[in-house]
Amino acid sequence: xxxxxxxxxxxxxxxxxxxxxxxxxxxIIKRSIWNYLFGFVMVxxxxxxxxxxxxxxxxxxxxFFFFTQVYGFFYWVxxxxxxxxxxxxxxxxxxxxxxxxxxxxxxxxxxxxMRLYTDATHPNWDSAIAALSVAAQILLMRRHIExxxxxxxxxxxxxxxxxxxxxxxxxxxxxxxxxxxxxxxxQWRVAPRD
Length: 194
Description:
The protein has helices at residues 3-29, 35-52, 56-77, 93-117, 123-141, 147-164, 168-189. The protein is mostly helical and 194 residues long.
């Protein structure tokens, strides 16, 4: 495969992943179970994209996301309101603080492993995104509104990293994700609770 064919194929995969990502977050904001269909496709494509760009923490993160998509789907199916939308659950300040401490430890651990055992280009930055994403995804699949605060942090960090790595469509996607995360936070604040 020549350079042009490789770039067009790579860009097409990235644009499909971006489209699936937008649809995934749109349906999450709407508290719709349909988010998982697009989430599955997105994480598979981004696992390959991030691996190809030597963003190994983000690539491994997609594997984690794949399994949490399965768990989240079944969890959301069993926590729906009569209108079919998922009910929101509050986490509590103490649990949130403990979660953030655990996330910090995870970030430091991933950073060290990426620096020691890979040729990752931005191991600390990439690992911060990965650790925060793990925490945000766990909170999201458990329907906690606090997940949106973490997604906002992830999006801010990711936009910069993807610009630096010349993943422009993905940087734009994360800028849109940032806007959607703010909208999601505002909509989930007034959504029915479990």
